[in-house]
């Protein structure tokens, strides 16, 4: 029963959402038509039609809220906001507390020349020095590897000698003792006739 109710609830919600989308689209279309009609008129005609004062004549303490309406074209809204920011000393005052006010590029230079190991045409100097060091170390590494290889050969030869001695002893013991016969498991079942 709850599945039936939930499907009806989902359907009602979908219909309501669709109706809301249609309303928003109709409002946007009406606003676009209004903006197109206002685009053909001059700024003075638009201000007179909307009953707004000239944004350039406004000053400190005047009401700028009327310019924030959606029916006011964007360019007139921006003119009014510019005038508001210039007329109000609190808004016009740049106090330096804004994060985006600093020139971070100047700070990154450290107020002087930056020392780096990068060389034009060569790249990073530290990398080149490391390559040179490795080239100088190659003969030394080859000598060390040869010495280690000789030691390994000696150790392996000693181990082989010990191994052969142990295997010879085991073989001698095996020959003396009786041959080992592996045990086999036998299973018997009552039903089995074999």
Q: What is the topology?
A:
Blueprint: H1 2-39, H2 43-50, H3 74-87, H4 89-92, H5 104-108, E1 118-119, E2 123-124, H6 125-176
Antiparallel strand pairs: 1-2
Q: Would you mind describing this structure in some detail?
A:
It is a single chain. With 194 residues, this protein is mainly alpha-helical. It is built from six helices and two strands; from the N terminus they run αααααββα. It has helices at 2-39, 43-50, 74-87, 89-92, 104-108, 125-176; strands at residues 118-119, 123-124. Strands 1-2 form a two-stranded antiparallel ribbon. β1 (118-119) and β2 form a beta hairpin. The two termini are 66 Å apart. The model has no long low-confidence stretch (mean pLDDT 77).
Helices, by number, come to 6
Q: What are the segments in which pLDDT stays under 50 over at least 5 consecutive residues?
A: none
In total, how many beta strands? Answer: 2
> What does the main sheet amount to?
2 strands, antiparallel
Strand content: under 5%
Summarize this, please?
With 194 residues, the chain is mainly alpha-helical. It has six helices and two strands, in the order H-H-H-H-H-E-E-H.
Task: Offer a few descriptive terms.
mainly alpha, 194 residues, two-stranded antiparallel sheet, 2% strand
